[in-house]
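Much of the work behind modern protein science is quiet bookkeeping, done one molecule at a time. Below is the pair of lines this work produces for a single protein:

***
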Amino acid sequence: MLVVIKGAGDLASGIAVRLAHCGFSIVMTDLEKPTSIRRTVCFSEAIREGSYRVEDVKGTFTRSINEIPEILSRGEIAVLVDPSAECIYEMQPDVVIDAILAKTNLGTSIDDAPVVIGVGPGFTAQVDCHAVVETQRGHNLGRVITEGPAAPNSGIPGNISGFTTERILRAPTDGVFCEVHHIGDLVEKGETVATVEGLPIIAQIKGTVRGLLPTGTIVHKGMKSGDVDPRCVFDNCYTVSDKARAVGGGVLEAILMLQRGREHV
C-alpha cells in the first residue's frame, strides 16, 4: 500500500516509522529548506544529507519521481522536495496523510486519495479528509476522529515536567540563525543556546537541547527555533517521542479502519 505523507518533521517522521514497521511503502514531501526543530528524528534531514536514518528506518532523498520505486523496493522511505505535494496526482497513492502541522489546511482535499487523514487542528473529518488524528497532549492524544475537527490549537506547548512555554527557544529578531550549543548538549538556565544577528537566545530552564535549527537558517522574530527538555535524557534527542508514537498509532488505526470500511462497501 502506497502512502504519501505531507511533511517530514518530527511528528510526520514518527508516523512514518510506525507505518514502515508495518510494511507500508512511504513517500514524504517537504520544503527545499526544512525548518524542523527536532531534526535528529526527522526524515527532512535527508534533504540536507542525501539520506537519513530515524531509529531503524532509512529515508533517501530524490529529486525524481522516477527513482521512487527503486528506493521503496529497498524498504526505504523516499523523501521529495515537493511543498505542494504535486506527486500525489502522478503517483495516485492509496493513502494521503497531511502531517505538515500548519494548524490550518493548506490544500489537502478528501478527494486526494481513497484514504485521506489530517493530523492535528485545521482539518474536519468528512469535509476535507476521511479522518483526523488528535495531536493535543492529554486524554485524547492519538484519538481517531471520524466526524468533525480536532481540538483547536491552544497555543501552549505540551507540559513536560511542569514546563510549557519555558521549554521553547524563539528567535529574538529577523535574520540568520547560528548555533552556539548543539542538539544533545546540556545547558543551564540563562545560558546562550544560539544567536540571531548577534542577539542571544537564552535558555529559560536547565535541560538538554532536544531540538535546534541548523546554522544558516533564515528566521523571523518569534519563530520557534529550539526546544530544551528538562528531563535531561540524552537518548530522547535521537528517538521518536512519546507524542509522535501515539499519533503514529492513531494514523495506523485510521488507515486500517478506513480501508476495512471501503472493503465492506
